[in-house]
Amino acid sequence: MVADDRISIHQVTLPPQCTTPQFVAALARHGLRCTSLWREKTREHGVAATAKLVADSGMRLSGYCFAGLVTSPEPGERAKALDDVRAALDEAAALGAPCLVFVAGGVDARDKDVRGARGRALDALGELVPHARAVGVKLALEPLHPMVCANRSVLSTVGLANDWCDALGADDAVGIAVDTYAVWWDPQLLESIARAGRRIISFHVSDWLADTQDLRLDRGMMGDGIIDLPALRHAVEEAGYDGYVEVEIFSQRNWWRREPDEVIATIKQRMRTSV
Ligand code: ZN
Q: How far is CA 247 from CA 31, 102, 180, 198, 219, in A?
């Protein structure tokens, strides 16, 4: 059971047609005070306008999502990608977000070198640490499901995120985002969460539907799938995490088609019974 004051609802969970002001107003209607903002939506509304909206509404941010995709082997593309992450860190700082979700990037078809891509992502992180430190926003390394290793993230496990954190030696600027949807299948997950300890700075929940239709856009509501969410929440709390529990549901065929009030009411109820 997760109390209302620990709930954060990620902006991407509400129907895409919801503007940022409509989204913030919907959360406030249900007495919720925390969110994680989606970068695309923030840019659409404007960073300064969104920062003002957040401040005026008294909303807290659990994170800003996302930036990264730094695995290109081509120097010009790589430099551009790093600049984009720095810009996202600046945006997160302006909004008052404590961390920026970092998605590593996939394998490049030009070299088909997954090992090389991992090395390039780690090198890029090393170059980004000073900027993260300077603006006071942590990079939250988010492992994604291995089925999206080719196009989104060569970082697939919490174990590898731990290895990267060890290599970087920058726990003041880099942490780990544990997204249950992405890592529930991992046989080493509980050991890796324990090893991560206080490096866990972000915790995301949704559910994996047994008959999922789309790896990215068919996430389930907590309780509708096969992830033992209470067990994973206990594991991260045992490791020392006491922050917000962030609900992140990309759901093209179901929840994105419903009214925001229905989605939020369902989330509040499921956080009590299924997380
Ligand atoms: Zn996530």
A: 15, 17, 10, 20, 11
Please report, for the domain that includes residue 236, its CATH number.
3.20.20.150
Query: What is the Å distance from ligand 1's center to 8 Cα?
Result: 12
**pLDDT, tens only, 13-27:** 998 889 999 999 999
Please give the distance, rounded to the nearest whole angstrom, from the Cα atom of residue 242 to the centre of ligand 1: 17
- Taking only the tens place, the pLDDT of each residue in 198-228 is 999 999 999 999 999 999 999 999 999 999 9
Please tell me the distance between residue 63's alpha carbon and the centre of ligand 1 in angstroms: 10
Whole-angstrom Cα distance, residue 220 to residue 246?
Answer: 14
Q: 122 CA to middle of ligand 1, Å? A: 20
| Residue from 140, 120, 168 nearest 63 by CA | 140
**C-alpha of residue 202 to centroid of ligand 1, in Å:** 9
Condensed to tens digits (0 to 9), the pLDDT of residues 48-88 reads 999 999 999 999 999 999 999 999 999 999 999 999 999 99
pTM: 0.97
Distance CA 197, CA 232 (A): 13
Q: Give the structural domain span for 75.
A: 4-273
Q: Specify the number of domains making up the chain.
A: 1
Instruction: Tell me how far apart the alpha carbons of residues 132 and 139 are, in angstroms, rounded to a whole number.
Output: 7
Residue 41 vs residues 47, 52, 94, 144: alpha-carbon distances, Å = 9, 15, 15, 22
